[in-house]
Structure formats: C-alpha cells, structure tokens
Amino acid sequence: MKFHSPTSFAEAVVLAQNSEGVLRYLAGGTDVLVQMRAGIVTPDELIDLKKIPGVFDITRTAEGGWTIGVGVSGAQLGAHAELCADWPGVVDGMELVGSTQVQGRATLVGNLCNGSPAADSVPGMVAAGATVSITGPEGDRILAIEDIPAGPGRTNLTKGEMITAINLPPRGENGGDCYLRFIPRTEMDIAVVGCAVNLRLDGDTITEARVSLGAVAPTVLLVQDAADAIIGTTLDDEAVANLMAAASAACNPISDKRGTIEFRTDVAGVLAKRAAKFAYARAKGEVIKGTHL
Amino acid sequence: MAKDDLSTHLKYVGTRPDRPDGLDKVTGRARYGADIAAAGMLHAAVVRSPHAHARIIKIDTSKAEAVAGVKAVVTRADFPTGLTGEDWNLQENTMAGDKALYDGHAVAAVAATTSLLAKEAAELVEVEYEILPHVTDVDEAIKPDAPVIREGAADASVPEGMPANVVKYMEFGHGDIEAGFAEADLVMENTYKTEATHQGYIEPQACMGQLGKDGKGEMWVSTQGHWYIRKMSAAVLGLEASQLRVTPSEIGGGFGGKTTIFMEPLSLALSKKAGGRPVKIVMSRAEVLRATGPTASASMDVKIGMKKDGTLTAARAEFRMQGGAFPGAPVDMALYCAFAAYKLPNVEHIGYDVLANRPKCAAYRAPGSPMGAFAAESLLDEMCHKLGLDPLEVRKKNAVREGDKSSYGPKFGSIGLIETLDALENHPNMQAPLGPNQGRGIATGYWFNHGGETSVSMAISEDGTAQVSVGTPDIGGSRASIALMTAEALGIPYENVRVNVVETGALGVNEPTHGSRATFASGKAAVESTNQAIAEMCRRAAAEWGIAPEAVEWRDGAAHPAGPNAGDFPPMSIQEIAVKMGETGGPISGHHEGNLDGVGASFGAHAVDVEVDPETGRTTILRYLVVQDAGRAIHPAYVEGQYQGGAVQGIGWALNEEYIYDDKGRLQNPVFLDYRIPVASDLPMIDTVIVEVPNPGHPYGVRGVGETGITPPLPALANAIQNAVGVRMRDLPMSPVKVLAAIKAQNG
Q1: CATH number (domain holding residue A266)
Q2: What is the per-residue pLDDT across A48-79, written as a single tens digit (0 to 9) for each?
Q3: What is the pLDDT of residue B6?
Q4: Which tens digits make up the pLDDT trace of A120-179?
Q5: Cβ atoms of B723 and B439 closer than 8 Å
Q6: Is the terminal CB of chain B with fewer CB neighbours within 10 Å at N or C?
Q7: Residue-level pLDDT at B7
Q8: Nearest-10 crossing angle of helices B736-746, A261-283
Q9: Where does residue B151 rank: exposed (0-12), middle (13-18), buried (19+ CB within 10 A)?
C-alpha cells in the first residue's frame, strides 16, 4: 500500500489521477481505517488530505454562508457557536455520528463520500441546500450534496476528482432546520430512518422548505412533495398529515436486520412531522440544543 | 444464625473497601488474555466455515504452508480419534470433522510468525464444501422432515419415533394436572419465544498455549475455570491432564461463556506441530459472536390454572430449546426455574433439547431461567389482567416459603421470596406516578446457586499478614469478598489479606466460577482454611504458654487464654506468632477441599416503568428496581453491581439483542453495531435493594447473587409494555419494529 501526504489539492489530484488499483482518501479515517481493519477494503493507495493547508478551517463567506474544510471534525463543528446558531440541524446530524472519540476525527466530507444511505450528516446538508466544491483533472466544479451519492458505497466523483470544501448557504432571517434519526438505542447506532427539515417563515407561514430522508432508499433523498406539503402553511394538522404522507410515499426502502419496509415507511412520516416541528420552532427563534425524537 | 448477630458482630463483612484488583484494572496494569506474550511466540488464525451446514470434501493446506513465516497448519486430521460423549462434542466443536455444522465452525488453523501472516495464510487454505440443507429455528428443527444435524445423537431419554434432532427429552412433575386445571376459574395457555443472546463480555477469548512433543504443556488463558480448560483440552488432544498447567489471566467478563473451551486447544495443537513454540490466539468480536457459545433460543408453551382470588391450581410447561449443533440447551434448568417461585399442587414439565445449525451454546448467567421466567411470568401477568387482580398480590399469595415443595421437586430450605416481594412493594418506585404511554411491570426470578468442587489454601506470612490461594477466577469482586471474610475470621485488617487466583498446579481441582459460587464456595473454604490456621496459631501460643491448646481462644487477631483458669498471659498477636513460626514448628497454613454443600437459593423481584413511543414502538426505561435476597452481602457494592449488571443484560435480551440469521443460515450481526447490547445512555441508574435472609449453610450467611438478576427483566418488560400501550409481546426481542407492528395491529 502506498501512503501519500500531498500539501496541495493540485498535488493530490495528480496523485489520484495516476493511482493504480483501489484508492481511498483519508480525512478523519473513521470509515476507511475501520474498513481496512475489518478486511472490507484493502486500498492500494491512500491519499491523506490533512496536510493540505486550510482543510481544518470553518470560514464565513462574503454572502454570509459557510465554507467548511474537508478535515473539520464533528467536534470542531459542535464547538463553533456561530455555525451552530445558523445550522443547528446540520451540526446535530454530524454530532450523532459515532462516539465522542470518533467525533474528534470524523468529517462531513468523509460521511458524505462513504456513500451510506444512512449517513447521519447528509440529510441535514441536503435540506440546508449545501453544495460541495470539487477539484479534478478537468478543473473545478460545484455539485449539490444530493448529487454526490450514487448508491450504497459509491459517489458520482470521477477518477482524480475530490471534494475541497462544503458550502453552506447563508442562513438568512426566520429560518430553522432540524435532523432526527430513529435508532433502537440512544447512541452508538446507525440510522434506521433519518429525516432533516429546513424551512423559512414569513410570520407564521412557511415560505421555503426542503425535506430530506435517509436510510429509506439507495441514496439520501430530497423529497420535493414533502416540502410542497408544508410550503404556504402554518404547519397545521392537515399540513402535517400531508407531510407525513408525502415522506412515507417517497420511501423506497429495503427490509433488513435493522428494520422492515413497513417500519421505515411509517417512521419516515413520524420523523418528518417531528423534525418539521423542531425546525419551525427554531425558525421562530427558539433555541433547541440537541433535538431528540 | 440470627440476622442481628451477624450485623452487630461483624467488623469487615458488610463494608465497602476498594477492590484489591481495582488499581491494576483502571491503570491498565492488569494482564488480560491477550496481554500474555513469550519469546518465540507465534500468532494463530482460524479458518471458519462460511456455511451453516456443509460436508467437508477436501481441505488443501499446501498453499498456506508454503507462505514464509507459517510454522504450522492443523486440521481435524491432527487430532486423536475415538472420543465419545461430551469429549467428542468438544473436539468436534473445536475443529469440524466430516461436516461444518454452523456458520463460523472452525475447519483449520494456522500459526505464523506474525498475526498478519497467519491471517493471510488462513485465506490460502482451500476447503471444498458440499452445501447441505440447514435449520436454525428451534420450531423448524424439531419438525420430522427437518435437515438432520447428526444421526444417532439422541441419548436414552428420547423415546422411539421422535424427530431426529431431539437429543434429550424430559418430563417431570407432581399432583394431578387435569384435576388442577378443572379446579381453576381461569385456564390460559400461550406460546412464548426467546431468541439466542450472547454474554457480550468485553474481552474476546484469548490464550497462549505451548505443548512439546513430550506431551508437557502450559496455557495462559482468559477463563472462568482453568481446571475445566485443562480437563477439556486434555480430552480433546489426548493429553494427560496433570502434564498441562493452565494459568488464568485477568478476565474481562465471562457470564458463563468462559466456562468451556472453543479455540483454546488449537493453540496447543499448533504449538506441538510448530516444535513447541508458544502460540497465541485472540478472537475477533465477529469470531466471538459466530463461534463461541451464546445461550439457547426457546419456544415455550405454558398453561396455568388460577382461581378468581389468584390462587394457582395447576401449571404446565412444554419447552423446546436449541443450543446449537450439540446437546446441552438448558431446557432442564428452564423448566426447574419456570414455576419455582410458586406453590403448585399440580404441575407438569416437558422438555426437548433440539439440535440446529448454530454454535454450541454455553452457560449464560442463570442458564435457562430467563426463558422459563419469560414464559411463566408473562402468562401469570396476562391472567392477572384478565381477572383484574393485582400482579404483586397474586405473586405474594402463591409465593413459596421455607419447607414448601418446589415446583421441580425438592423442598425449599431457608429462602427469602416473601421478604423480597415485601421490600419491592414498599419501595418508593412502586408509588411513582405514570403518564400516558407509560406502564409498570413486575416479575420474579430464581436461581438455585451452586457449591461444587472447591480447593482452597491459605497461609500466614512471616509478618502476620495472610495470603489465600483460590481456584475461582475473579469475575465479580470475589477477591475482595474472600479477603473480607478471611480478615473477619482472622481479626486482621482487610488490607492485610491478599487473595490470589492460582494456576492448576497449585491446588486440587476447582470447578469454574459458575453457579454464583465463588464467594459462597471459595469463601466458605477460605474460612475453613483460616480456622485451621487459627487452630495452629492457638497451638503455638499454648506451647509457649505451657497450657493446653483447648485453653486458648482466638479473637481480635491474637491468641488469648480462654479464661482465668487457663492462666494469665498477655494476648499473643498474629504478628508475634508469625515472626517466629520458623522456630516454633514451621509454616502455618490451612487448607480445605470438598464438594461444598449448604448452598442457598436466591429469589429476586424486579419492577420496571417504561414509556413506549406509540409512533415508533421504541421502549424507554424510566426507572428500574432490583430487589434480591443476598443472604448476606459481604461487599454490598459488588452485590449491587451484580444486581445492576444482571438487570442490564436482561433488559438487552428483552428489548434488542438477538441472533439474526439469513436464509443461508449465516449470522447477519456478528458485530456490536447490530448486536445491540444496551449502552449507558439507554438506562437510568438501576435502583437496588439487598434483602438479607441469611443462608445457614455458609459461615457468614452468603447466598450466590450473580445470576438471578438476569431473569426477571424479560417478563417484567413485557408486562410493563402491555400496561403502557396494551400490546402483549410474546416473542423476544421486543424491538421497536415488532412493538410498532403490534400497536398497529391492535389499532386495526
């Protein structure tokens, strides 16, 4: 196995382009190292991205959004008061990944590129309308978060391409977001269903919304019907019922050791309802730390 | 002895000092199984069957042997033949013969100079299989047309004509069962199922074995019982037991799962083939879950007759259990325990031990009792609901007392069930208000406890301190408890007693730390040994004083003249006697051995409050109470720890833990991510009440306390869930998926 520590993304791109066999990128390593230990993946080449200047930075953009480096850990996100105030749902999702020890290493980009439909940080980013900056042999491009996963364990990045940063849009006024997941226990577990809701209010009325579901399809979903069910409403009972129905209808899950099709479909609606209520409360200015089911 | 005497006269027993092994454990100095190493040591990897049931056509080890650094490869061909009975079962489980019998069954093993090389070489072992039909569910395995695990495996108890996978059959009871049911106002019958669960000890099995061509060997191993390891390894490998010396390491949990062998003999077989170099084997978690011994899964029919006032008139249990591809499911224990808490004039038990394509089960904390309790205590609760009776009152009304005939036959000696139920009733948790979707469940549990083969030595050191050598590995604080009892008997401070768990060469045969016996049996033998040493110290003092030994008594750590007539001598302290013992007759020690009897059974009763999320089916535990009879709590903190630990394992079994097999019979969750033992944040602090009804068969009144606690949680949680949301769960685990499905079915 070859281990590379490039000091620029340009250098990393050349290494990736010229790599042979199985290539893995190393950010926090909380997936890659575990997979190596378990014998699931034995990379021929490992490119460590942590020596590249700037990868640990969280930066406010000129427009008021955020740029988050590929090496930023969950613990770093959770300790960033302004980011937490803007996007509590995104940060909550990331902080649900693994244990306290894992939080010291695990990254948003790693969670995204691992390609799990159950990745806890991804629905929150999708609902937020986040994008990723990509660099590669053909130059730079920007993709929406929801366009990165291609299926379990796969992404739409081409050979030599890598993510250089996550971009969160400006929070703006009267907005709120929330991510909730269902697990049989209280922590150290993998989402059986995950749901994020991001919305903006004008008075009591929802003017913008994005709803994302995890672990109910081969990739994390952006569910437009679910968003449409609550846009223009005050999240009244009828809107909630429509939201639940739309979320459940969007599910295309499997039955496996963690849950049945029926359970995932039912609980997706329940999580959408509860996440929307938390997001609504946050948009109203309530400070809710660490949302639970 | 009266309880008051115990309370007022004891100086050390009943206190809570730091455990002697605590500092080593929290600083990382304690040496567990995988911490052992020796010069020239090799590392082993085991090749395991990916199939649930397959004939082994051919094993080609040549490519593995060709890897540089590989020093030995063994298959079943390297083991002696001609074994019978349980020896054969153990050998067959250690290494598959003609057939692989479960997913994870060992088929070959490799020793190499590094662990990575061993793993690499293991992948080069080529095994040709003929895949056979398999069965993993007990109700499927008992069907007449089920795939047959092994012809002729049944013992003499199985009547002609039973399905081939039934290997043991039992029926017992008393009274007139039909008359009993006829007398009842309500008779109910239901079927209950429990899934196999694993002990989940945090330390995977690990050992280092060394065996020369001369048949002399040594092993260092994480185990609950090194004499069992010695006996079983010797049998499997055809060695003389005394030529194998086995030293136990510190142990990171066992709960019954480390009372037998799995990969341990492989280290010796590989070592012998590698010219006597020591060979270390450390299991991965996946190997632990696939190829060590979980408990059995069970399918149980229970029928109970009850009068309108709650009096039980008759009960019948018919239990089917699979404990893997070998006999040994604890169906007998499950039946003995199922109705043990209640006076039953008419009772009938029927049991089937059934083979299936799963790993060979091992003991797990009160083996069988949790399953029996789940079936019996659930149905009892359902009947209380039906008749509108208070479930605690009904249990008190029927509770057994000293002298009552037990459901399984023998008369009870001194027991504390009534006292336990009273303490539960009087606990504030029973008055806590409950909100919507919240419910309270109670249940009782029982374990016999065990004495068993025990050999203990103690010796006085030159400075008047004491050492005790025991053969029961310390899995629950037994060194602290034995030190407290020895200190009490000698009248010297707890800190002046060191208790060592010693190797097989140092004592006679000891059974493992099982049956909640270490504090009872090794403790009792330690006290007997100490009394011998005290008698000798009294003789030394008598000789110096020139009086008869009978005229000397021992108290407060010193010999005293027994009375004014004995003579007027100042007390002679243990230090004074010890410092000159070399001149007064040599070492002073004591020894006790035997099949220790006088064991005291332990009843427990639990109360749990839950809240069930009606939209997700998830159960949250709001408060949990364990009440149990300890006889006498030698070190109350460790008794409470046992109560809490037992409850938590039972809670995991009830709510989320299970062996999940796919349609090919492969285990789908051999990892803690998907084998869901509870995490700390899932639980409130478990409340405990120690009831003390002393056991007259122990010098300090000890009963075993380790096992009963795992039993009541299974039914208590099912009872609480019904009270919370109205659904009766009869199939474990009561996972959110199942509970939500039941709620939806109830709501139509």
Answers
A1: 3.30.390.50
A2: 999 999 999 999 999 999 999 999 999 999 99
A3: 52
A4: 999 999 999 999 999 999 999 999 999 999 999 999 999 999 999 999 999 999 999 999
A5: yes
A6: C
A7: 52
A8: 90
A9: exposed
In chain A, the number of structural domains is 1
Structure tokens that stand for B554 in this block: 């021992």
Rg (CA), chain B: 27
**Among B residues 648-707, those touching chain A with beta carbons less than 8 Å apart:** 655-656, 660, 668-669, 673-674, 676, 678-679, 681-682
Say if A236 falls within a structural domain. Answer: yes
Query: Does B543 lie at the interface with A, CB-CB under 8 angstroms?
Result: no
**pLDDT tens-digit readout, B514-530:** 999 999 999 999 999 99
DSSP bridge pairs for B111: B44, B72
CA separation, residue B193 to residues A62, B146, B172, B279 (Å): 62, 19, 22, 42
Phi/psi region, residue B196 (left: phi>0; alpha: psi -120 to 50; beta: rest), is beta
Phi, psi for B594 (deg, rounded to 5)? 160, 175
Phi, psi for residue B433 in degrees, rounded to 5: -70, 150
Domains along the sequence of chain B with CATH:
3-30+453-594 (3.30.365.10), 413-449+600-748 (3.30.365.10)
Tokens representing A176? 């709120």
C-alpha to C-alpha distance for B365 and B517, rounded to whole angstroms? 12
The model's confidence at residue B4, banded by pLDDT at 50, 70 and 90, is: very low
How close does chain B come to A259, measured CA to CA in Å? 6
A3 found inside a domain: no
Residue partners of B208: CB distance under 8 A and separation at least 6: B36, B37, B38, B41, B219, B220, B221, B267, B278, B279, B280, B281
Residue B448: both structure tokens together = 């016999």
Q: Domain for residue A103, yes or no? A: no
B543-570: average pLDDT: 94
Q: Over range B220-248, report the average pLDDT.
A: 98
Given CB atoms, is B47 within the 8 Å cutoff of chain A? no
**Which domain covers residue A192, as residue numbers?**
175-283
What residue spans of B66-144 are helical by DSSP H? 85-94, 115-123, 138-141
Hey, is A168 helix, strand or coil?
strand
